[in-house]
Amino acid sequence: MNMRVKIHHEGTELLYVVLAFLLAVNIPLWIWVRPLAWAIAVTSVSAVLYLLLANFFRCPRRVFEGNRKDVVVSSADGKVVALEETFEDEYLHCRCIQLSVFMSILNVHANWFPVDGEVTYIKHHPGLFMAAYLPKSSTENERSTVVIRTSRGQDILVRQIAGAMARRIVTYARRGEEANIEDHLGFIKFGSRVDIYLPLGTEILVKIGDKTTGGITEVARLHPSANA
């Protein structure tokens, strides 16, 4: 696994603003406030908070080194919280396998394409901001749906879902463009979830509770004859 880490552009402006605010608070403390213990304490807390924020917006560039044929990789860093047969009624209109990964505030929040193919459908849905681990968040929370058609003609649906703290979903995918499992599909700010809908007959390689790495962890293998 080859990874290069940088700060995601979604967080650059916020990090500059927060840094300016923290400097405006901390510099006067060091100049005018005595004893210096107050300045040391506030600066220490400020540094920890800033590092946590920077950690949230980290953006690793990942290279998938496995066998790409029929592979489905996780779209997100996090933990598998749902794995079940369900009926998808927005685009696929059929029964399929739902595989959901929940991202905590400590996870990378960039999202990857789960399969190689062509983007055929994109739609953003306004909605609620319930806890993203709840099952009904898939259909009631603010969300963005992306469908990728593989070279075998199989439609794989990915849904970015906002959580209780997540207030902004960014989707970079565009209809008609090529999807690559090493590329970012989008980004979700502050605690959220990604659902992947797979054809029945797909070989599932993970289980509930497993931790995944976006763009790297193989979560499933598509069966050549399975249709979504």
Characterization of the model:
By secondary structure, the chain is α+β, with helices and mostly antiparallel strands. The protein has two domains: 2-59; 67-221, Glucose Permease (Domain IIA), CATH 2.70.70. 21% of the residues lie in helices and 39% in strands. The protein has three helices and 16 strands. The protein has helices at 9-32, 36-56, 137-140, and strands spanning 2-7, 58-63, 71-73, 78-88, 94-103, 110-112, 117-125, 143-149, 155-162, 168-171, 178-179, 184-189, 192-198, 203-204, 211-212, 218-221. Strands 11-7-8-9-13-5-4-15 form an eight-stranded antiparallel β-sheet. The longest helix is centred in the N-terminal third of the chain and has 24 residues, at 9-32. The relative contact order is 0.20.
Layout of strands and helices, then pairs:
Elements: E1 2-7, H1 9-32, H2 36-56, E2 58-63, E3 71-73, E4 78-88, E5 94-103, E6 110-112, E7 117-125, H3 137-140, E8 143-149, E9 155-162, E10 168-171, E11 178-179, E12 184-189, E13 192-198, E14 203-204, E15 211-212, E16 218-221
Antiparallel strand pairs: 1-2, 3-16, 4-5, 4-15, 5-13, 6-12, 7-8, 7-11, 8-9, 9-13, 10-12, 14-16
Helix pairs in contact: 1-2
How would you concisely characterize the structure shown here?
The protein has 228 residues and is α+β, with helices and mostly antiparallel strands. Helices cover 21% and strands 39% of the residues.
